[in-house]
Amino acid sequence: MFVGAVADNFDERIEQKIFHCEIVVDNERVSAETKAYKKIPVITNFVDENGVDRMKEMIKENYDRIKAEAKQIVADELQRIKDDPDLCHLLPKEE
Description:
Layout: H1 27-35, H2 55-83
């Protein structure tokens, strides 16, 4: 864990604190690299035909669907194990 202060901007110097070092940044190179950045393309658009952003509800729908599918997989596997004479001993005894 480092204790100390760090400047928000590369060209902003601050007094050194507990750690004894200086981070040297080539501002021109960083600036040139930043200018070459390309926008991240939109892969999925959650806006419907009425212009309403449906991202949260689509994520919730997917979450609920995946959760239901996982529960069904577990139920199916438990039933498969229960029905298999070679595996049924793996399940706890029903009271």
